[in-house]
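User: I'll paste a sequence; please echo it back and then give the predicted structure.

Assistant: Echoing your sequence first, then the prediction.
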Amino acid sequence: MSYVRRHPQPTAYHDAFEDTSKRARVTEESHMNTTPTNWILLAGGLVILLAAIVALFVSQRQRRSQRLQRRFGPEYGRAVDEIGSRTKAESELEAREKRVGQLTITPLSPGDAARFTQAWSAMQGRFIDNPKGVVAEADRLVRELMMKRGYPMGDFDRRAADISVDHPAVVENYRAAQSIAMRDERGEADTEELRKAVVHYRTLFDELLQTSAPTEEAPATPHIPAHP
């Protein structure tokens, strides 16, 4: 008598297990397929974010440079050439702004303005007789005026740097006058150069001669003759 071996019929539980296994495999395959896409999207987002940060940084740097160029004028280019680095020059100019911003710079009273104007007129009238003495006196009078306005009296380079913040158009006049005065101390400046030094000092002097209220027109100062 022969027996026929029969395979067990799949049960509902077995079907459910197979179903779950298939779904798990499909999910795993789907996840593996989407993982590279997610990384690509993430990398793309990071690139865009980095580009935006760089663009913002460049824009801020440009605005910073433009602001300093407008404020300092030719002094900006001079600082870049002297220091040799735009970034370092801009840091130096901003340091000047910060330092001067902490000072108490005040306009002159009408009485002080009149006194300084009269002192300059009297000094200038002595140029023909004593050009060397007038240059030294002009330097002293400018420094006295600076102190009266509230500027500290450090060395010359510091004084010029402080002046450049609010008076960038005339700081080169101050440097030119100082250069001639130093040459005169070595006996290397002639009378015409001394006359130019006084004119340079006068340019800065007039710029600093600001008053807190309108005043009567100051008397005109005599013209400095070209030759004694």
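Residues 213-223 have pLDDT under 50 and may be disordered. The longest helix spans residues 12-72.
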